[in-house]
Amino acid sequence: MVNLSGPKPHQLVPEHSDRIGSNSVPIHLKNQWIEEGFVCIPSVASRSEIEDHNKIVTDFRRLLDDCLDPYGFGDRIGQLHQVCPDLMNISAKSEIVAFLSWAFGEDPVLFGSLQFEKGTEQSPHIDAIFFWPEPAYAMAGVWVALEDVDPEAGPLFYIPGSHKWPFFHSDDVVDRRPDLKERWSSSANIDEVGDLVSAVGNAWTEDFIAMERERGGQRITPKIRAGDVVIWHSLLAHGGATRINPTLSRRSVVYHYFGKTAKLYTFSQFMLTARDDIKNLQPTVMPRGSYNGLEFMQFPQFATYSDGIERVRLVEDFTGKV
């Protein structure tokens, strides 16, 4: 049984006296962010911007040797904007940047992107465990619909208010599992680290699903049309509904941002480090570039996926081919 009275949740927004009603972000979006952890901004991307984005991704997929599913759809592609910078065009839209600047209390920096052709069918998950931000509110996911989303195509869902639930760190998880805690507390050698990270990650997911069930969390599927943008809090649980009709596509892109002065840590660091200690580790530091005024982290690689297997590729091997 998960202890619903703890651990304590994290701070949701910066402590700014002018946080409400003092800039271009509508008050109803600010209130919804605080209460639900999720907002939808309609018609951010134009039809031509969507067409341009989809063409770049489609042309790039022709260069890949990854397998398609039985219905002709490719799997996700991570960090493709490192190869094709124009895929950051929508990510730099003023509506997105303005909202994130308010939510973070400072300018946002783009650090990741994922291109999708089909629904993910992902179980509820929280982005912060994969790239932990300090402070916890200084990271968000931004999902852009690149076509109208059919309810049978595996639409996005979220659990309103789950960003305010007690939030488990790795020490909270292992404290309830003596055998796992003994492994976690000892100095694992390099060959054991991967297995330990997976074990703690699986335990974290078990505890979250149990808390969702005990709290009666409701999975909400918003109606989303091409060009709409949804933004979720780093601590908000979300996922992908079942693809009832797998012949339907669900073209979309997810961007991940963090605050300009925030620190960003890896999944392994989160899973292997106690809540109060993680901020003392070395955060992810990469060179930064700029696209239409938006700062972004520059990585030398991107990733393709096939049957759940990740393949890391060098940006330089594909630059100029699209």
TrEMBL record:
Xref: InterPro entries: Phytyl_CoA_dOase-like
GO terms, molecular function: 2-oxoglutarate-dependent dioxygenase activity; iron ion binding
Coiled coil (UniProt feature): none
Source organism, top-level taxon: Bacteria
Cofactor: Fe(2+)
Identification of the protein by name: Phytanoyl-CoA dioxygenase
